Amino acid sequence: MFSGVVPKLPIIYQDEFLVAINKPHGLLVHRSPIAADADLFAVQLLRDQLGQKVYPVHRLDRKTGGVLLFALNEEMNSFMQQQFQEGKVEKVYHAIVRGYTDDSGIIDYPLKKDDGTIQDAVTDYKTLQRSEMPFAIGKHATSRYSLVELRPKTGRMHQLRKHMAHIFHPIIGDRPHGCNKQNRYFKDMLGMDTMLLHAASITFTHPKFQKGTQVHAPFNPQFSRMINELDFNWIGQPDKA
């Protein structure tokens, strides 16, 4: 997806200490042994684009788009890492999921790490809009979808993906936690081959200026197209923290 022409990353916030991009779906944050097919990475692309070293202060899955924040020096990176570790950074995501979700809810469901360790994991969610489409998938003549706002209260690997699957509303395009029938339909019939999870905003205290800072990322093209395909008309921003 990102081989060949080197893309210019969209910068949505920048000062002399921090920079944030709107990460495209499908772009890895950094090199990973489990993604040997990739040859472009956000860290290297942004470094070359700015002409200086950058430090990712958090991570996004390869197929997740949206706000990705970097520090521009080691001291700032340490300050931001500390805020994340202390739970002082608020992240808001948007997702399109299968079925009609409740108006709001709290998912309190511990998750297991690869080494077997059990970790507490909590996610708040709110339904922004619902849609029913004439997609005959499986035994049903129509398919229902929800556009949801997700606020993770903990930062576990694949937390949002696993939590939405746990309440039987998997994120469209999620593999392996999602619905294979839905994913196949979206790929074959709608030409959509990503995961519909978007990091919409991040809120933190700027370590240098000591003031609340919030960075928003607009939907990437694939997400915007699916918003239209599914007749969602919601174009707002997440609530202010």
Molecular shape: globular
| Radius of gyration over C-alpha positions, nearest whole angstrom | 18 Å
Largest sheet: 10 strands, mixed
Give the helices and strands as they follow along the chain: EEHEEHEEEEEEHHEEH
The first-level CATH class is given as Alpha Beta
Return the CATH architecture: 2-Layer Sandwich
- Topology-level CATH name: Pseudouridine synthase
The CATH homologous superfamily is called Pseudouridine synthase
Distance between the termini: 34 Å
| Range of strand content | 25-35%
Question: What is the structure about, briefly put?
Answer:
The protein is 20% helix and 30% strand.
Question: What key attributes describe this structure?
Answer:
single chain, alpha+beta, Pseudouridine synthase, two-stranded antiparallel ribbon, 20% helix, disordered C terminus
Could you please describe the fold and organization of this structure?
Keywords: Isomerase. It comes from Dyadobacter arcticus. Pfam families: PseudoU_synth_2. It is built from five helices and twelve strands. By secondary structure, it is of the alpha+beta class. Strands 1, 2, 3, 4, 5, 6, 9, 10, 11 and 12 form a ten-stranded mixed beta sheet that branches. The radius of gyration is 18 Å and the shape is globular. The C terminus is likely disordered.
SSE layout and pairing:
Blueprint: E1 11-14, E2 18-23, H1 42-50, E3 55-56, E4 65-71, H2 74-85, E5 90-98, E6 104-108, E7 111-112, E8 118-119, E9 122-133, E10 143-152, H3 159-166, H4 180-190, E11 197-205, E12 212-216, H5 221-229
Parallel strand pairs: 4-11
Antiparallel strand pairs: 1-2, 2-4, 3-4, 5-10, 5-11, 6-9, 7-8, 9-10, 11-12
